[in-house]
Amino acid sequence: MTEPLPFYAEVRVVRAPDRPHVEGELGAVIGISDPPDQSTPPAYAVLLDGEEELYTFLHDEMEPTGHMRKREDYY
User: Could you state, in chain order, the average pLDDT of each consecutive group of 10 residues for the chain (75 residues)?
Assistant: First the structure.
């Protein structure tokens, strides 16, 4: 299983078949779902730079950049 992403991790969208206009965009993890069981992967709420709404992605639809953003940047 893939290591979960932490809150405020900077990510790049690498795959979004239903929203191709956001592929390549940067953002930060703002929320993480609590799956009902271990076989269900968590979903991540991501606030993309320049956007006001959250987008939901699975881990394999994003790649971490290795940078962490600050909570103060969002709240």
Answer: 88 95 97 92 96 95 97 89
